[in-house]
């Protein structure tokens, strides 16, 4: 069975679907059980749309981590409401302790 495509509208996302590489770091990597995954997305999808799909796939532990994480879309800091557009990758960066 094909994986559902992440989209934020009622339009048929299969018309312009492509894959986005999601990279998990630190606690997000531990919660997902992997460092990287490819997810089919439509250009109209938002970061928040994608995060919802990831939380469904990987469970509440990842959902809790991403609730406090920062996000880089092709290396540029973005908010949850930003559209994915033509981006190739999303990095999920949980808060890091330092000192």
From TrEMBL:
Question: Domain of life of the organism in this record?
Answer: Bacteria
Q: Where are the transmembrane segments?
A: none
- One family name in Pfam for this protein: ThiS
Show the InterPro entries listed in the entry: Beta-grasp_dom_sf (IPR012675), Mopterin_synth/thiamin_S_b (IPR016155), ThiS/MoaD-like (IPR003749)
Q: Write the protein's name.
A: MoaD/ThiS family protein
Q: Give the organism, scientific name.
A: Nakamurella sp. A5-74
